[in-house]
Amino acid sequence: MQKLLMDVTGRSFPDLMRFRLLQPLGMLLSTYQQPLHGSRRHSAALAHDTTGQRLDVPWMVYPELAAAGLWSTSEELATLVRSLQRTAAGDVVQPLSRNVVRDLWQPVGVGSFSAGFHVFQQGEGWYFAHMGSNQGYRSFLMAPQSKGYGLVVMTNGEGGWTLIERICRRIQQVYDWDVQQTEGQFRFAPQKGLGCLPNVRATEPRPSTSG
Fold first, then answer.
1. Contacts by 208-211 with C-beta closer than 8 Å and gap 24+?
2. What is the mean pLDDT of the chain?
3. What's the pTM value of the predicted model, to 2 decimals?
4. How far apart are CA 112 and CA 147, in angstroms?
5. Is 87 inside any structural domain?
6. What is the rounded average pLDDT of the residues 179-204?
7. Domain that holds residue 118
8. Which residue, 9, 21, 133, is CA-closest to 67?
9. How many domains does the chain have?
C-alpha cells in the first residue's frame, strides 16, 4: 500500500502523510520521516529492552514506513482517535470521510483484525484498538466507536506491556468504562489480553450500518 500510494501520487511517503493526514489533523509533532531529522532527535524517547537497559542504538530505523515508521506523541494519537470518533458520528471532520472510517473499522474476517485496528465487541459496545511493537517500544490505544473517550499509552521499553495493562485497567475503572462485565455488583472483569484487549480469536463480523 505504501508503494502504491507513492507511485500514484509521485510523492515520498513522509510528505504524503504529512500533507494528507497529519497536518490536517493538527498532528504537527508526528512524522513518518526515517531516520529522524536532527532537530527532532533531542525530543525522541530512547529504546530499551525487556530488562530496562538501553539498546545499543537509540532506535531502529525501519524502511517499511507505513507499518513501523510513525513517530508521534500520546496527545497527538489521541487527536487521531477523537477525529475518527467524530467523523463516524457524522461531524464534519477532515481529512477522512465517514465511509473511510467505517471501512477502517470493518473486520476483514481474520480474527478481530480490520484495516489497521483490532475491532471487537466488549462490554456494552464496539471498540477499536491498536498495539504498537517496534524494537525497544510498546504502545497501545483503545477507544469506543460511538463514545467520545479513549486512551493512549506509550512506553519506550520492550517490557512495557505490564505497565500498559495496569494503566489501561486503572483508567477503565476510574472512569467507569463500559467494556467491563456488567453482571452483579463487581463490574470489572479479569484480564483478557494484552493491552486490555479481549483474547484475539475468530469473531462474527460486525454488521455494516447505513445512514
1. 208/102, 208/106, 209/102
2. 87
3. 0.87
4. 20
5. yes
6. 58
7. 2-196
8. 133
9. 1
| Cα–Cα distance for residue pair 64/74, rounded to 1 Å | 22
Q: How far is CA 93 from CA 86, 101, 194, in A?
A: 7, 11, 31
Q: Is 97 domain-assigned?
A: yes
- pLDDT for 161 equals 92
The DSSP-derived string for 105-169 is TS--SSTTB-SSSEEEEETTEEEEEEEE--TT-EEEEEEESSSS--EEEEESSTTHHHHHHHHHH
Report the CATH number that the domain containing residue 73 is assigned in CATH.
3.40.710.10
- Asked whether the predicted pLDDT for residue 36 surpasses 50, the reply is yes
Residue range 84-128, pLDDT digits in tens: 999 999 987 789 999 999 999 998 887 788 888 999 887 778 999
Determine, yes or no, domain membership for 209: no
Name the residue among 8, 19, 15 with its Cα closest to residue 33. Answer: 15
